[in-house]
Design goal:
Shape: globular
Order of helices and strands: EHEHHEHEEEHEH
Number of strands: 7
Radius of gyration: 18 Å
CATH topology: Rossmann fold
Helix content: 40-55%
Strand order of the largest sheet: 2-1-3-6-7
CATH superfamily: Flavodoxin domain
CATH architecture: 3-Layer(aba) Sandwich
Structural class: alpha/beta
CATH class: Alpha Beta
Largest sheet: 5 strands, parallel
Number of domains: 1
Distance between the termini: 13 Å
Bound molecules: flavin mononucleotide
């Protein structure tokens, strides 16, 4: 049985959301094909308890300097640790979001800031090279975008502009997760007359990806 951790970021309701529809097609196909797996879902737009704020930076700096935390910092660190432990314990990660200004929503960035923690998810070698701690795990990124970035719908490849997908792939690589792919619903805003067909194609891709995930 695998533990699947879903990090979902969308500030609006699920109504009429292509991101949500893409996710539903993925997760319904996944649960059909992996009925015994545990799915943990976090909508980090609804609840993201630990932004990278003053106290978080103080905890970071004191930990790097091997200094004691004050009681507030210790409480913050202990509570945040549960989220880090949950991330470490998962076998598979599903990141779900709409593209905002070529990137992921800020709450998803805050979630990643929370789990990118030495020594739990990665460390540094003597030479200063990051060494990932999360081996034998896999991840998928489900993303809805107004324009075309990944060569869909006859558009040229503009994947270098999809900074969110690159970023998630890079931070996962730093943490040791290299089995990473994306499923994209893209171009519906650019070509609304074909939005239905574009979405149906993305849903089919999500269902196929779910069976192999
Ligand atoms: C604030 C904002 C910024 C956006 N930035 C981009 C962008 O940079 N590139 C893009 O292709 N679409 C962009 N979009 C469009 C959304 O990514 C697209 O409409 C997506 O399908 C929305 O998903 P939803 O239907 O789940 O809300 C943006 C939308 C909003 C609201």
């Amino acid at each position: 049985m695998s533990k699947v951790l879903v990090i979902y970021a969308h500030p609006e309701t699920e109504k009429d959301s292509s991101t949500y529809a893409l996710y539903r097609h993925f997760i319904d196909a996944y649960t059909d094909s992996h009925p015994d797996d545990e799915i943990i879902e976090h909508n980090v737009s609804d609840y993201m308890p630990f932004p990278l704020n003053k106290i978080a930076v103080s905890v970071y700096n004191k930990t790097m300097a091997h200094k004691d935390l004050n009681p507030d910092e210790q409480r913050f660190s202990d509570a945040r640790q549960k989220w880090i432990d949950e991330f470490v314990a998962a076998d598979k990660y599903v990141f779900v979001n709409p593209m905002y200004n070529l990137f992921i929503p800020s709450e998803m960035k805050s979630y990643i800031d929370m789990v990118m923690q030495v020594p739990y998810t990665f460390s540094y070698s003597k030479e200063g090279v990051p060494v990932g701690k999360l081996s034998n795990k896999k991840a998928i990124h489900l993303q809805s975008t107004g324009g075309n970035y990944h060569g869909s719908n006859g558009a040229p490849d503009m994947s270098s502009l999809d900074l969110g997908h690159q970023y998630i792939g890079t931070v996962l690589h730093i943490m040791g997760v290299d089995d990473f792919k994306g499923v994209f619903a893209e171009g519906m805003d650019h070509d609304p007359t074909h939005a239905r067909e574009i979405l149906q194609h993305a849903f089919d891709n999500a269902e196929t990806a779910a069976k192999d995930f």
